[in-house]
Structure formats: structure tokens, C-alpha cells
Amino acid sequence: MKKIEFTLLFLLLTVTFQAQKISGKILDQNNNPLSEARIGIENQEIGDITDSNGNYTIDLTNIDKTKSIKVIVNEYEPFKVTITNFLESENHTIILKKKIINLETVVINPKKYVLKNFGTSNSKKTYGGFDSSEPDDIFKEYAIKIKNKKNLKVKNININIVDYKFEKNVIFIFDIQNEKDGFPDDAQSLVNDPLRLIVTENDIKDKKVSLDISDKNIWTDKDFFVLVRIADDFKGQFSFGGNIFAFSKDTYYRNYFGKWKKYSGGEPSINVDVMIEK
Q: Which of 10, 25, 168, 217 is paired with 182 by a 20 to 30 Å CA distance?
């Protein structure tokens, strides 16, 4: 009987030891809370998004402690630390440093630059989207790749939406990143300010919403990715338009900081207006 009791106690202690839910805050250098900050395990679909007070909870139960915890907020330097080092710290408050991108002022000569649109703008066919009744959908992130070899400035990010029903406003969160090994790279964001667009059903005109970022002075002469996700308080559903069975197009997607995956056979209707060299 004592042997059985000892075994049960050992199993209970083992489960307790393995269960590691960690709570903390994510703040800026002035101790202001950062909401909508993503914290997760690199290359795994595990994580959380901070609330309005910067609070998060992340479950590290049975996670390989050599893996890394990441925090990404567009306008701040990425945070990354091994789980082992993270757990050794008694204080799980994370302070993010403001990111500084040196943006060169470029004077556009209209004779040398033309307005073009890159990406997909099909609004007739449904192609993926978000549904708050599906928990994993809320934390999905989509990306498209723009192939480019000329100097250009990004003016607008556009999304074509086919079907939609919101219980409240939806907040779109965008990023523009350079590539690494053929996929978006969090460490190479071209964005120095938050790119957020608050949308109501009445804001969707001709199945399209747009965010004007011409004042952000985002320039590149390389291939780049346009990323989009939604705030985690979204209630409702909507579907992108897109090109289905377009085998020359690719869809990139991930959950939290899981590995980027590529589906070669179509592309969601995410596109950008740019001023590009002739």
C-alpha cells in the first residue's frame, strides 16, 4: 500500500513540476504596457498575445528548454531568449527597446517613377480568411511575396474581402519584411511604426479596404513580403478573395511564431500600390 502511495505522490510531483505556465508583462522602456504584442516559441505554434495592460501567459509545459521565446512588435527590437534562461529569471517582465530604422529621404521625380500595383486583387472567389469560432484561425498570419529588383516606395496596402460578418470592428495588423531563405524574416522588418487598420462592415467598399502608408517612407530595392493578421479580440468571420489554382502564385502562412509554410497553388487578395522606378 505504501509503495502505491509513494508512486502516486511521485507521479503527482512529476506532473506539477512539468506544468509551467508563466505569466508576466511586456512593457516599453518607459514602463508603458504594450498591447497586442505576440510572445511565442520560435518555430512552434504556441504563444499568447498581450492584453491592454501588457499581460501575457505562456504555457511551457513539456517544451524543449533549449528552444527560444520570441516577442515581436513592429516598432520595437525583436526579443529572443532561450527558455532555460527565461525560466532562471524570477522576473518575467519583458522590456522592449524602440527600433530605429534609418530611413533615407528620397525625392521622387515623377518622370522616373510610375504607379503600379503588385499582388493579387481578385474579389470574385473566396480564398481563406479568419473565423473567430475556430480558435487557431485568430492567430494565423498570411503573407504574399512581391518580386522586385527596382527601387520602390510602398504607398498603400490593400485587401479584397469577399464574405464577411463582424460582431465588432476588426483590427488588421500589417508588416513588410525582407526575406530569408525564401520566407519572411521577423528580424528584417522594414516598418518603423505600427501598421494597423480598424475596419467596420461599412468601411468595406467594392469588397476592398486599404491602408495608406505613404507617410511611412518605406523603400526597398529587393524582394519583400507583405504580412497581415488580425487582433485577437476579433469576433466574426471574413474571407479574402484570391486566385485559386494559380500555380505561379504562393501563399505563405503560420500560427504564432511557428515555421512559415508555403502553399503553391494560389494567393490571397493582398496587394500593394507602389511608386517604382521605370
A: 217
